[in-house]
Write a structure and sequence with these properties.
The chain has five helices and seven strands; from the N terminus they run βααββαβαβαββ. It is an alpha+beta fold. Strands 1-2-3-4 form a four-stranded antiparallel beta sheet, sandwiched between helices. The protein is globular and about 40 Å long.
Amino acid sequence: MPLTLRPPRHDDETALRRMHDQLAADGFTFLQHDGTWDDILAVVAREARGDDLAPGRVRCDFLVADVDGVLVGRVSVRHELTEYLCEVGGHVGYAVAPEHRRHGYATAMLRQSVTLLAAGGVERVLVTCDDDNAGSAAVIEACGGVLEDVRTFGTETKRRYWIDATA
């Protein structure tokens, strides 16, 4: 089954809010904005264009992972790095809903995200994960990630990988 990354639509609200609630239990913020669904979609569209960005935000594509009409997760593809993103967040953040894990979706999502960044001129893609997240580390390594180091930023300890987007 092919996985497609696409912007969220009006009819995705129920599935995405459910994933948000599921992952909140793990301390992960799936939806990065609050408000009505129309408000969230407007912010997503504005950030994708890089228009009127809030302080600390960069141009970012928030894309859902769709497999034959079923939403399985999401990615945030950040087109540049702030100091914080360079330490903690990286160019790509991704999440797969618990019931869809271990099917290769995270790997497909990250590969497509690297391709999107390469098309935009990014040559080296930074991807981070929690130091104790072996599953995410395996995904990043499967996509060509090379561990640079492990850093603590505040209370977060992150593994920092670089992927050559030109390979």
